[in-house]
């Protein structure tokens, strides 16, 4: 059989079968090209739409200071380092960012990767060796699952945010084996926060280390946006904190922070770190400037909390099911996957951009519209967005 046959023969068992149907129906929601993105608003097909589908939580991607920092870095260093960190790819600005991130997260050491995906894959596959165990929440990000699969260890999964099931899983594992529990600080689809204090208590009971993916928490939770561990006051009890630059930091890349000897080990063993070109100068400078603004302007985070609460309360009062979120990520559960896609299409036509998420992105029966707020959203943006949701929700019988 030709190995490419699966690409052409789209039978009902093929994972792309429904994508083909969506294209034929004119409701395919992915890879849509935006003509311009100004943060809270974007241009799509020549029309201005409200943006409620971005991870730009602090609204810094269009901030003048962040843009200027990137431009100055290009002038000084060029557009790329054209090499890995091991070879010619380490600049002083890499070390500066790593030092400031470690200080910000109150950890001994930090290293930056080229993407968040590479951070998780590299860290987990480096740390979880033969005869070790990675214990993950069933709703952990795909990069965490891939990191576990690429390691030589064994992966165990527990029910989402289920402390009893976590303990059940840990209890059955053999004593004397290495164990790393990995959770998202804030879950990217549901906006739920991991119950870190309780998870830490269970980890200590079974001599397991803990790693927190704070991609959607840094800049959102805690003092000056220091993340989930800071939010709960348990920074000393979390062994590894991972984050990305593609959300609140208005850039591209990722990082892992922890004890110096552990980070030094990852730095020399993580294949996605060793064998990838280093993060580029404009991305480094953007992240540095965003980190500076994050700490100097805590009012941004306060406004993000305020508009997010207004958005959550507004959707809930209209009768939408938003789950258990307490963050700027606000899911609107539609449950039926085709109705989810049709509602996304109607919302876009009415002037609001959100993200439809259907299986396998979420479990069957949990299809949703992923909405998210930014610190730069105004009350007018929120009110207009709610009006559109009300109109479309009633039209499609969702509310």
TrEMBL record:
GO molecular function: pyridoxal phosphate binding; transaminase activity
CDD domains recorded: KBL_like
Cofactor or coenzyme needed: pyridoxal 5'-phosphate
Keyword presence, Transferase: yes
This protein's UniProt keywords: Aminotransferase, Pyridoxal phosphate, Transferase
Gene3D superfamilies named in the record: Aspartate Aminotransferase, domain 1, Type I PLP-dependent aspartate aminotransferase-like (Major domain)
Family in the record: Belongs to the class-II pyridoxal-phosphate-dependent aminotransferase family.
Protein name: Pyridoxal phosphate-dependent aminotransferase family protein
UniProt lineage: Bacteria, Bacteria division WOR-3
């Amino acid at each position: 059989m030709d190995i490419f046959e699966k690409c052409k023969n789209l039978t009902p068992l093929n994972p792309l079968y429904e994508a083909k149907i969506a294209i034929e129906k004119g409701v395919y929601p992915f890879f849509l090209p935006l003509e311009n993105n100004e943060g809270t608003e974007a241009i799509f097909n020549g029309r201005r739409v409200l943006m409620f589908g971005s991870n730009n939580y602090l609204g810094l991607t269009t901030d003048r200071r962040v843009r200027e920092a990137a431009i100055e870095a290009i002038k000084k260093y060029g557009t790329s380092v054209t090499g890995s960190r091991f070879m010619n790819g380490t600049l002083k600005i890499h070390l500066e960012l790593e030092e400031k991130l470690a200080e910000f997260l109150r950890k001994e050491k930090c290293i930056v990767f080229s993407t968040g995906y590479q951070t998780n894959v590299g860290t987990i596959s480096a740390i979880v060796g033969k005869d070790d165990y990675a214990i993950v929440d069933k709703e952990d990000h795909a990069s965490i699952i891939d990191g576990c699969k690429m390691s030589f260890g064994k992966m165990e999964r527990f029910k989402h945010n289920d402390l009893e099931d976590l303990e059940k899983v840990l209890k059955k594992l053999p004593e004397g084996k290495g164990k790393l529990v990995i959770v998202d600080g804030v879950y990217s689809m549901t906006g739920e926060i991991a119950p870190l204090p309780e998870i830490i208590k269970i980890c200590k009971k079974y001599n397991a280390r803990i790693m927190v993916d704070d991609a959607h928490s840094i800049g959102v939770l805690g003092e000056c946006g220091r993340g989930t561990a800071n939010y709960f006051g348990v920074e000393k009890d979390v062994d590894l904190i991972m984050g990305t630059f593609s959300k609140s930091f208005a850039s591209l890349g990722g990082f892992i922070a922890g004890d110096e000897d552990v980070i030094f080990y990852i730095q020399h063993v993580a294949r996605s770190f060793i064998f990838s070109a280093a993060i580029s100068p404009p991305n480094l400078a953007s992240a540095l400037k965003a980190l500076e603004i994050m700490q100097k302007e805590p009012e941004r985070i306060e406004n993000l909390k305020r508009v997010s609460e207004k958005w959550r309360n507004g959707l809930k009062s209209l009768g939408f099911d938003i789950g258990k979120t307490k963050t700027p990520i606000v899911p609107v559960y539609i449950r039926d996957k085709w109705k989810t896609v049709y509602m996304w299409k109607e919302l876009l036509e009415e002037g609001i951009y959100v993200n439809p998420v259907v299986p396998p992105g979420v479990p069957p029966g949990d299809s949703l519209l992923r909405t998210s707020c930014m610190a730069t959203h105004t009350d007018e943006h929120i009110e207009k967005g709610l009006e559109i949701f009300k109109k479309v929700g009633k039209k499609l019988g969702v509310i």
